[in-house]
Amino acid sequence: MDLSTKDLEILSRIRKHRLADLSDGMDAIGLVNTGSMDSNMRPIRSGMTMAGFAYTVKLIPSQNKVKECNDVKEYMDELGKWCSDSYAFMDLIRKDKCKEHVIVIDMDGYPGGVWGSEISLQILKHGMVGAIIDGGCRDSHECNLEGVKVWCTKRTFNHVYGRLVNGGIDIPVQCAGVTVCTGDIICADDDGVLVIPRERAEEVLKFAEVIHKSDQEARSRHYCDLGIKPDETLL
């Protein structure tokens, strides 16, 4: 999952634009609604933006019954066994092969908390940008205190233990209504999440850059007419 200089240049350009501009660029090349995730995919707090290359994960409902544990050690042992499967995707991340990537987890909207405050810090240490989860995030308050970037369709206190197992890593997934492949460009802000196919990114940017500049020029005039102090969105 190494990135080329060209990949990083594309990502840098993408990060300068709003999802509105990028979505308009998608529309311009005929990809209307193709990469727009369902509106249930929301950030865990306002004011966040994120862009990176997708690293895909699939989790599926378990068919196995959990063991009734008699003491804490027994439970922790069982939890460790379960997590070694459900969190198998962390193996590659720990090998530092996912820098500038966004983890995209397809749980088919299941309200299990695959994500939380501790795993968020793990991925930050390995250079990942954030997480997109068609499912649950827990420890929401701690995640926000940590400043981690997470978008999800569910908020919960439940774990994935006893609920979900590994269904595949680095495969095409369906996340909030959009097919995502490893290497696609994931963009997110307050308005939601957009997926741009890597091979079409430069075409999208050709339109998005002009659209964004035109919007800034128009709003600058309005700011002046209304006596509003310019802000960072006009830069």
Question: How would you portray this structure in words?
Answer:
The model has no long low-confidence stretch (mean pLDDT 95). The chain has a single domain (33-198), classed as Ribonuclease E inhibitor RraA/RraA-like (Glucose Oxidase, domain 1), CATH 3.50.30.40. A hairpin with a 2-residue loop joins strand 7 (173-175) and strand 8. By secondary structure, it is an alpha/beta fold. The longest helix is centred in the last third of the chain and has 26 residues, at 201-226. The protein contains seven helices and ten strands. Helices cover 35% and strands 28% of the residues. The protein has helices at residues 5-14, 19-28, 72-86, 90-94, 117-125, 140-146, 201-226, and strands at 42-43, 50-61, 101-115, 130-137, 150-155, 164-169, 173-175, 178-180, 185-189, 192-196. The protein is elongated. The strands form two sheets. Strands 1, 2, 3, 4, 5, 6, 9 and 10 form an eight-stranded mixed sheet that branches. The protein has a two-stranded antiparallel sheet with strand order 7-8.
Task: For the structure shown, list the relevant keywords.
single chain, 235 residues, alpha/beta, Glucose Oxidase, domain 1, eight-stranded mixed β-sheet, two-stranded antiparallel sheet, 7 helices, elongated
Beta-strand content? 25-35%
Please name the fourth-level CATH homologous superfamily.
Answer: Ribonuclease E inhibitor RraA/RraA-like
Q: Count up the domains.
A: 1
Task: Count the E strands.
Answer: 10
Radius of gyration: 19 Å
Number of helices: 7
Helix content: 25-40%
Mean pLDDT value = 95
Largest sheet: 8 strands, mixed
Structural class: alpha/beta
Residue windows where pLDDT falls under 50 for at least 5 positions: none
